Amino acid sequence: MSQIPADLQYTKEHEWVAPTSTPLRIRMGITDYAQGALGDIVYVQMPKVGEAVTADKVCGEVESTKSVSEIFAPVSGTVVAINSDLDNAPELINSDPYGAGWLVEIEVPQEPQGLLSAAQYGEITA
Q1: Apex CA 58: angle with CA 55 and CA 64, to 5°?
Q2: Is residue 116 assigned to a domain?
Q3: How far are the Cα atoms of 3, 41, 42 from residue 106, in angstroms, in the given order?
Q4: Is residue 3 part of a domain?
Q5: Is residue 29 part of a domain?
Q6: Which of 35, 65, 75, 122 has CA 20 to 30 A from 16's CA?
Q7: What CATH number did the domain enclosing 60 receive?
Q8: Rounded distance, CA 47 to CA 50, Å?
Q9: Beta-carbon neighbour count of residue 12 at 10 Å?
Q10: Domain count, the chain
Q11: Is residue 17 part of a domain?
Q12: What is the pLDDT along the chain (126 residues), one digit of tens a residue?
């Protein structure tokens, strides 16, 4: 059974969203369910700081020993930070998808709308 922290929001494409200590800035990553389905992650490609991303559009990809999977932006906004630790240790996504394995931080124009609660996401992965 995959971990689904109750304090996060989710997308149907298996990304998670968490607020940060900075207003209108979110942190995102892929869910435990997604990393488990992918298997051993060996490479991550994400947008650069300063790039605009659009909700529900491809913004990067994760390569595993099984396949390559697209990452979809959960919100629209501007990338303000990337997790550079993943450059040398992409397996952090496997070992700690909701912590050290985060992907990017995005500055958003307003609070995110239309994301799934943990209970709603749990129904998708059940």
Answers
A1: 130
A2: no
A3: 23, 23, 24
A4: no
A5: yes
A6: 65
A7: 2.40.50.100
A8: 8
A9: 13
A10: 1
A11: yes
A12: 689 999 999 999 999 999 999 999 999 999 999 999 999 999 999 999 999 999 999 999 999 998 999 999 999 999 999 999 999 999 999 999 999 999 999 999 999 999 999 999 999 988
